[in-house]
Design a protein that fits this description.
five-stranded antiparallel beta sheet, 3 helices, alpha+beta, elongated
């Protein structure tokens, strides 16, 4: 059965998480299609060109069936999946979250990275206004 409403974010927000000298800056956008997401990724990479990683996850569609997560060079499953997990735990769609990492000189290990990317996504989502949209 297709739902007649879905949850998404109202507007752009951001958050910050710090761990062992690394800064994880997170950004949340409401989005409507993949082309918009590509433009957001490109502009974020340009704006934060000195960041070591630009990890992200997005979900599209009222049934939340179109999604992607990307680790951007971090160990497999240590960045994109934790970000996507925060989107899924709130049942959100039409959303893109990017977390840029400025490396602080100390390795965090896979479990440390998972925690950092998850915490950064949470920091931005806590600043977001989540609302219910009606399908037309």
């Amino acid at each position: 059965m297709v739902p007649d409403t879905y949850l998404t974010v109202k507007s752009f927000t951001q958050g910050l998480y710090k761990e062992k000298g690394s800064r994880f800056i997170s950004f949340v956008w409401p989005v409507s299609d993949e082309e918009e997401i590509k433009d957001i990724l490109e502009s974020t990479r340009k704006e934060h060109h000195a960041a070591r990683h630009h990890c992200y996850a997005w979900v599209l569609g009222p049934q939340r069936d179109h999604f992607r997560a990307n680790d951007d060079g971090e160990p497999s499953g240590s960045a994109g999946k934790p970000i996507l997990g925060q989107i899924n735990s709130r049942n959100l769609t039409n959303i893109c979250i990017i977390v840029v990492r400025y490396f602080g000189g100390k390795l965090l290990g896979v479990s440390g990275l998972i925690n950092a990317y998850r915490s950064a996504a949470v920091a931005a989502l806590e600043n977001a206004e989540i609302f219910e949209c009606q399908l037309s």
